[in-house]
Amino acid sequence: MDVRQLRCFIAVAEELHFGRAAERLSIAPPALSRQISSLEDELGVNLLTRTTRQVSLTRAGLIMLEEAKGILVKMEHASRNVREASLSAGKILRVGAIDAASSSFAPEALMTFRARFPGTEIKFVEAMTTSLVQMLEAGKLDLALMRPPRKPTDCAFEILRVERPLVVLNESHPLAARDHLTMHDLVGEPFVVPSKRARPYAYDLVMSYFESVGAVPNVTIEATEKPAVMSAVAAGLGMALAPDWVSRLSFPGVTLRRLRGALLDPPPPGALIGVAWRPQQKLPPRDDFLAILRESVTLIEERHVLPYATSAQPSKQAERLEALAGGAQ
């Protein structure tokens, strides 16, 4: 048996549905079925009972599920220990970040780290919070700049910043003539919201702001990435809410306005950016970078460049991150 067979069996055993298990593993159902059949042939037992309506575990399948989980945990533990042993022998810092961090405070913190510790190699990757947690737990990252974890994890998490919301408007919208807006001004307006499936933190945050005034957004479109949101607003499909760090970027046909009285207490997870790491690891470069973050990142950023230029151009922070990491992912 191999790891792929075990992962396939665990997915089917937990989902009790070949279609859902195949979607979870991002493989085709026939390929998944072949993996299960191969495992059963190798063991010489039936692990699953299949009918046209349902899938269930045999007694042997129940035992195999627990054994398979234990095998994968031991393999992951061994892999992580080997990686950590290798890293402890060299000077390397592996940092992961969500876009909110890589577009705001991460470049300055990494530049400070490089200036203080020029002999340490930096590897940087940008991903969403869920992926960053998985990479941390697998020993592929030393720390991650991300939202609070949604599920229990052995990683420590410390809040670094609370984001303030900004209103994204088409530059010709009547409300763009005002210096600032309130949530009541946005009720009933056509709205572009983040994708609930792809951006759950951002979606929940928008809903929380509207709930704070007893309303729901008049959703016209869902968009996954910030450029798509900005393009939709520029096309006149609606307005949107965005975190304060987008004031560092620029998009044509769009303007930003401050949102008064919208800091929720306590702030929802989608408004928080923090740092996560595995405290059981002993990694001096990581601890040095943690110290830099704690001394340099302010809880609430007061700087907003509003309004900003409308000509599209690459983010300076993104350019500096690419230079720092040498394009390494």
Could you give a quick summary of the protein structure above?
The chain is α/β, with parallel strands linked by helices and 329 residues long.
Task: Provide an overview of this structure.
It is a single chain. The chain is of the alpha/beta class and 329 residues long. It folds into 3 domains: 3-80, Winged helix-like DNA-binding domain superfamily/Winged helix DNA-binding domain (Arc Repressor Mutant, subunit A), CATH 1.10.10; 90-150 and 276-298 and 313-325, D-Maltodextrin-Binding Protein, domain 2; 165-262, Periplasmic binding protein-like II (D-Maltodextrin-Binding Protein, domain 2, 3-Layer(aba) Sandwich). Helix content is 42%, strand content 19%. It has a 5-stranded mixed β-sheet with strand order 4-3-5-13-6, with helices on both faces. It has a 4-stranded mixed β-sheet with strand order 8-12-7-11. The chain has a two-stranded antiparallel ribbon with strand order 1-2. Strand 1 (48-50) and strand 2 form a beta hairpin. Helix 1 packs across helix 3, helix 1 (3-15) packs across helix 4 and helix 6 (106-116) crosses helix 11.
CATH topology descriptor of the largest domain: D-Maltodextrin-Binding Protein, domain 2
What is the name of the CATH architecture of the largest domain?
A: 3-Layer(aba) Sandwich
User: How many domains make up the 3D coordinates?
Assistant: 3
Provide the β-strand percentage band: 15-25%
CATH homology superfamily name of the largest domain? Periplasmic binding protein-like II
How are the strands of the largest sheet arranged? 4-3-5-13-6
Unreliable stretches: 304-318, 320-329
CA(first)-CA(last) distance: 32 Å
